[in-house]
């Protein structure tokens, strides 16, 4: 499947697998019908055979019956008893065969349901994606219809596949029960069949549980934003500016203006949770990044705001208000389904179908996204003119790197005096200049929901020449040209910048504090006193003692039965054989005793800073461990890979399973196991010490 091209692998999972399950169900149906007919005939014929055999025995005491095997014959009375003993088994098999019939039909029905749902899903995705290319209204209606149908289709596929697999396994388990004898290999086969049935049921239940995400495919989640809502009283000029643009464009004006430091301009109808304060805002929200308002003039900001509000004009309104949230929600839900699937085969086909539907719509989304961005650029340019709109496209591209650099550095190392981060970004540009524009003219701007066309193409669509004059305007120094839009539109602009910077730095310090708390908790999760682990020698020693008992028992049996086996006449040979068995028993007893002595010697001694073992001549510092692992199965041991330049310890002589491989810098500390711990508990314990060292190192670096 992995080597096949993706379309073929998808068709196999969606169509061929249910078809094969249906073929299996039909084969099982034929077998069930044959079994019912066979056991029905046997149930009616066996009593007649019993009566006939008993009558034969009464007539002729020398008669014989072969019961189907000419080489073995029985007296009629004995044969009648043997046939009569088969009657309960035949009745039981007939009942089971009648149960198998509905199971076979359930396999067929489940496979047919999965096949029909898969075919409908493929056809619906194809038709909806083609209709979506007709217009934006068709895109919205087609996707809305698909999002209503997709949960039903996926649910039908999962239920159908689960029903077919579980009923198919139960059918074969009943067949196995009817055909095997409950002894030896038959018991093993029955046990394997029961395990397989339980696995099938568990897999089906897990698949249906994982599909619960489909029910909540489009549940909107509030976005978390660091920023402050700006009221009309706090910035009346800014509100008049935005409302005037909305009125001139006949667009829907925003309900809330949010001012923040990070991200770019965007408008959304998603509920937002603002911090600090955990204030929740709903309706249409226009987000304005303060650093950009410091670098852009009023005309450039008007073009950008006009562009964003243009998404709530005419046909674009339905797209922005209905389609974009559904499309984003479906993407989140499918990602959650993939995460919950955990490799379940029953979900492979449904997930591939859902991914296929999203991929088909991606083509239409990219097509209309490009067109709607060009249209939004045009409408935005009508507010301020083509050249300010083109200048805004270039200037926002070169503003992003210095702003991001200042914000990232402030978040990583929050200064104590809460400086104005917006002013710091402007000072950086004054001192270092703008980045190379050629690296950003080909860049694609990021946006919460859409893919934007390339900047040169957008400027070309505005009928503006990308010449030196435009670049000179767009790349002007922060203090050159008109006053920044922030200073013109917000009266106490510097105060707003300081407050936003304080909020941002407070969030950074809070993140650092939470991270430090996590590191401190991780470092303190291991005890300061030594933790001593011992080798689990019990099972290995008892194996040795058990072998010794077997040799002693064998020696005793030879002594008791010396005459029948031909050793009674030769005393020397008898003593030699018994001596060999006793000697072997003594060797195994000594081996078990030596292993038991190791129970008093520690296997590992764990301290917060070091790990030591009597099997090594020196302790190992946790800081020197680059990687580690626990081996179990054919051998048990702790594998440690030490960093380059660190002196390797040496394994002591006669240290079983312990070795130091210099070429790989691998230290293996062997054992039979760890007393009182399963492998997973031991692995978690070692991981806690390793993580504690990593946390201490991070705290020291901070």
List keywords for this structure.
4 domains, 6-stranded mixed β-sheet, 4-stranded antiparallel β-sheet, 20 helices
Detailed description of the structure:
This protein has 4 domains: 6-210; 223-314 and 367-514, no CATH class; 535-599; 600-701, PH-domain like (Roll), CATH 2.30.29. The model is unreliable at 181-185 and 444-450 (pLDDT under 50). α2 packs antiparallel against α3, α11 packs across α15 (468-474) and α18 packs antiparallel against α19. The longest helix has 57 residues, at 76-132. The chain is an alpha+beta fold. A hairpin with a 4-residue loop joins β13 (659-661) and β14 (666-671). It has helices at 6-59, 76-132, 136-179, 185-210, 212-215, 236-249, 290-295, 298-309, 315-341, 348-384, 386-412, 421-432, 438-441, 455-461, 468-474, 485-489, 493-523, 538-560, 571-597, 679-701; strands at 223-230, 256-260, 266-268, 272-275, 279-281, 285-289, 531-534, 602-606, 610-612, 620-621, 625-631, 636-642, 659-661, 666-671. The strands form 3 sheets. Strands 3-6-2-1-4-5 form a 6-stranded mixed β-sheet. It has 20 helices and 14 strands. Helices cover 64% and strands 9% of the residues.
Question: What are the SSEs and their pairings?
Answer:
Blueprint: H1 6-59, H2 76-132, H3 136-179, H4 185-210, H5 212-215, E1 223-230, H6 236-249, E2 256-260, E3 266-268, E4 272-275, E5 279-281, E6 285-289, H7 290-295, H8 298-309, H9 315-341, H10 348-384, H11 386-412, H12 421-432, H13 438-441, H14 455-461, H15 468-474, H16 485-489, H17 493-523, E7 531-534, H18 538-560, H19 571-597, E8 602-606, E9 610-612, E10 620-621, E11 625-631, E12 636-642, E13 659-661, E14 666-671, H20 679-701
Parallel strand pairs: 1-4, 2-6
Antiparallel strand pairs: 1-2, 3-6, 4-5, 7-8, 8-9, 9-10, 11-12, 12-14, 13-14
């Amino acid at each position: 499947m992995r080597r096949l091209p993706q379309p073929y692998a998808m068709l196999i999972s969606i169509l061929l697998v249910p078809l094969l399950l249906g073929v299996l169900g039909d084969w099982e149906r034929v077998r069930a019908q044959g079994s019912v007919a066979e056991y029905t005939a046997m149930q009616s014929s066996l009593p007649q055979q019993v009566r006939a055999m008993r009558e034969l025995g009464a007539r002729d005491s020398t008669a014989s019956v072969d019961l189907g095997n000419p080489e073995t014959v029985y007296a009629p009375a004995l044969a009648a008893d043997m046939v009569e003993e088969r009657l309960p088994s035949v009745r039981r098999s007939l009942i089971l065969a009648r149960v198998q019939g509905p199971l076979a039909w359930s396999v067929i029905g489940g496979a047919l349901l999965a096949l029909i749902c898969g075919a409908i899903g493929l056809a619906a995705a194809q038709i909806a994606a083609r209709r979506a290319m007709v217009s934006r209204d068709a895109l919205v209606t087609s996707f809305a219809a698909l999002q209503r149908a997709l949960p039903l289709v996926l649910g039908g596929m999962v239920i159908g596949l689960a029903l077919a697999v579980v009923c198919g396994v139960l059918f074969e388990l009943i067949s196995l029960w009817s055909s095997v004898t409950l002894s030896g290999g038959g018991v093993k086969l029955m046990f394997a069949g029961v395990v397989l049935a339980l696995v099938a049921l568990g897999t089906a239940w897990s698949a249906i549980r994982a599909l619960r995400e489909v029910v909540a495919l489009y549940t909107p989640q509030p976005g978390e934003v660091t920023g402050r809502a700006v009221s009309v009283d706090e910035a009346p000029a800014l509100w008049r500016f935005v409302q005037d643009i909305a009125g001139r464009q006949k667009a829907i004006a925003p309900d809330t203006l949010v001012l923040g430091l990070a991200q770019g301009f965007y408008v959304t109808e998603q509920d937002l949770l603002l911090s600090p304060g955990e204030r929740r805002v709903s309706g249409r929200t226009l987000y304005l990044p303060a650093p950009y308002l410091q670098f852009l003039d009023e005309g450039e900001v008007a073009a950008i705001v006009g562009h964003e509000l243009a998404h709530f004009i005419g046909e674009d309104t339905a797209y922005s208000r209905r389609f974009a949230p559904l499309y984003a929600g479906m993407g989140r839900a499918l990602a959650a389904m993939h995460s919950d699937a955990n490799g379940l085969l029953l979900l492979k086909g449904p997930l591939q179908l859902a991914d296929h539907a999203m991929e088909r719509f991606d083509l239409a989304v990219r097509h209309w996204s490009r067109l709607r961005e060009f249209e939004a650029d045009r409408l935005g340019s009508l507010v301020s003119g083509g050249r300010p709109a083109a200048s805004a496209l270039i200037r926002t591209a070169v503003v992003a790197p210095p702003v991001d650099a200042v914000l990232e550095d402030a978040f990583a190392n929050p200064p104590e005096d809460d400086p104005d981060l917006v002013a710091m970004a402007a000072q950086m540009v004054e001192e270092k200049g703008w980045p190379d524009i050629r690296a950003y003219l080909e860049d694609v701007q990021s946006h919460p929901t859409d893919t934007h066309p390339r900047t040169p193409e957008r400027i070309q669509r505005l009928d503006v020449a990308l010449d030196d004059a435009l670049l000179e305007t767009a790349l002007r120094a922060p203090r050159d040209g008109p006053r920044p839009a922030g200073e013109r539109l917000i009266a106490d602009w510097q105060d707003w910048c300081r407050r936003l910077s304080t909020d941002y730095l407070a969030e950074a310090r809070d993140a650092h504090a939470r991270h430090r708390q996590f590191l401190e908790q991780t470092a303190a999760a291991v005890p300061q006193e030594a933790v001593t682990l011992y080798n689990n020698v019990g099972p290995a020693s008892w194996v040795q003692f058990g072998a010794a008992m077997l040799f002693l028992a064998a020696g005793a049996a030879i002594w008791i039965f010396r005459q029948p086996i031909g050793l009674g006449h030769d005393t020397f040979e008898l003593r030699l054989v018994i001596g060999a068995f006793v000697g072997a028993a003594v060797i195994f007893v000594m081996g078990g005793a030596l292993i038991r002595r190791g129970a008093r010697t520690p296997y590992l001694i764990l301290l917060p800073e070091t790990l030591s073992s009597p099997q090594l001549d020196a302790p190992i510092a946790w800081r020197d461990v680059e990687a580690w692992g626990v081996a179990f199965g054919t051998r048990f041991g702790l594998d440690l890979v030490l960093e380059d330049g660190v002196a390797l310890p040496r394994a002591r002589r006669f240290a079983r399973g312990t070795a130091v491989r210099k070429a790989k810098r691998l230290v293996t500390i062997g054992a039979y196991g760890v007393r009182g711990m399963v492998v997973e508990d031991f692995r978690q314990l070692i991981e806690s010490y390793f993580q504690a060292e990593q946390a201490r190192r991070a705290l020291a670096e901070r």
